[in-house]
Every structure is written in C-alpha cells, then in structure tokens.
Specification:
The chain is an alpha/beta fold. The protein has 12 helices and 12 strands. It has one domain: Rossmann fold. The chain is about 40% helix and about 15% strand. The chain has a 6-stranded parallel beta sheet, with helices on both faces. The chain has a two-stranded parallel sheet with strand order 5-12. Strands 7-9 form a two-stranded parallel sheet. Strand 1, helix 1 and strand 2 form a beta-alpha-beta unit. The chain is globular, with a radius of gyration of 19 Å. Keywords: NAD. InterPro entries: NAD(P)-bd_dom_sf (IPR036291). It comes from Erythrobacter fulvus.
Amino acid sequence: MAHLLIFGLGYTAGRIASAMRKRGWRVDATGRDGNLDWMDAVSVLECMERATHILSSVPPDRASGLDPVLDFYDDAFEGQWLGYLSSTGVYGDKQGAWVDEATPTIAQSGEGRRNARAEADLAWLEMGARVFRLPGIYGPGRSALDRVREGKARRIDLPGQVFSRVHVDDIASGVVAALTQDAPAGAYNLGDDLPCSGNEVTEHACRLLGVDPPPLETLEEAKLSEMARGFYMENRRVANSKAKRVLGWQPRYPTYVEGLSGLLR
C-alpha cells in the first residue's frame, strides 16, 4: 500500500491528506490534526522508514531561518518520493512581470533580501523533491468573503500592484496529480489563471454580498503588520503552464470569480 507521511497537517495539507485517503492511501501526519507527535522522534523515524512518499508543509523557523524537517530528519530520507509546499514569494518582487519555474529565485540569483523560504525551497529541490510554489491561498473560511463579513477587508491604494492566488482545493488536486503520477522532481507553480489586484477581489466579494466596498487607504493609513506590509511591497504574476503541461492539472477555479462563487454557494 502506498503510504504518505505529511509533516505539518494544517489547512492545505489536510485537504491533500483527505484526498489521498479517499484513494486508498495510508496517511500519517504531524501537526495539530495529525496522529504523530513532532517531538516523538522515534515514532516519526519509524513512520519515515515505512513511508513511500513524504510531503512537508512546514515553513522555515522564524528565529533560526532553518527548515525544521530538514534540520531534524535530513539523514532519515532514503529514496522516498519527496514533496514540499513552498511559496511564490521565493521569486521576490518582479514589478508586475511574469515569473515561471525557470525564473531564478532569490536564493538562486543572490538578488534581493535574504529569504529563509527561498533557502528552504532550494534545499528541497537539491534533495530531488517536487516543490509546489503557492501564491495567496484562499478557500472555505479563508477568503475575501469572510474578510468582508468580518469587517476586516481592506483596499490599499497601490496602482499597478498585482498578485496571484489559488483555491486550496486546486492546490490539493495539483499535489494529488504529482503524487499519483510520480511526477518528475522540480518546481511547480500552482496558481490560478488571473493575477490581479487584491482590491479587485475585495470589490467582487462586496458585490456578491451586496455591501459597499471599504474605503481606499494608503499603506501608512492601513497600519498593516510587518508581514502584511511586506506582501504588498512585492508585485508579480505567476505562470502555471508547467503544472498544466506536466501534471495535466486544470484548476477547478481558474479565477477568483469562480472561486468566490463556489464559496458563496
């Protein structure tokens, strides 16, 4: 029986786990909803020995910048299929230009500010993993609709600023395709077909809910957290043609329009 071990069973990885169990796979996982205790190294190592496939969704440690999975268990990988959930943030700011998997990351080019995620992305690639680079993730309970309902939606006045996004179920279908087809090692961008501004998505969510959009604010007026401010300072469009070509992946929600409509239903 195919056996998947997931490091970090959270919002996105949980969707992947559910999909693989429906296909008859055994799935074990660390994380808040997993069945393994991350600190119980003996049980984790025993599971690693049995696992045919390993997927990590654990981000680098903020304090040290190290990837916890590689730091703790690097020597225990022995020929398993490897996967890693990364971020399109590894490309850095491209001033609205398109990026694809051939675009050097911050870690590969040495340009831009040091990025622990980019370093982890490169480390997993060097181990022969399938690295899934994800843009802004949305889905049930985590979408523009929820932010509007909760009064937390913002519109930031940054003309020309765009980013890509992806529905959580489309991430799951892309990773499942890679797992079940034994996809070649390398990077895969899993994003939708319509990069656009966050304001456009927020305004559409407001129309669906029949409410007025929030007022435009400058970055200074919005008083965003350092992490959120850093997000708005990066500007790029992410191409997804490799995933479509190599994995046969087709997003169920090719744009935010279909995605938000599905969530509203």
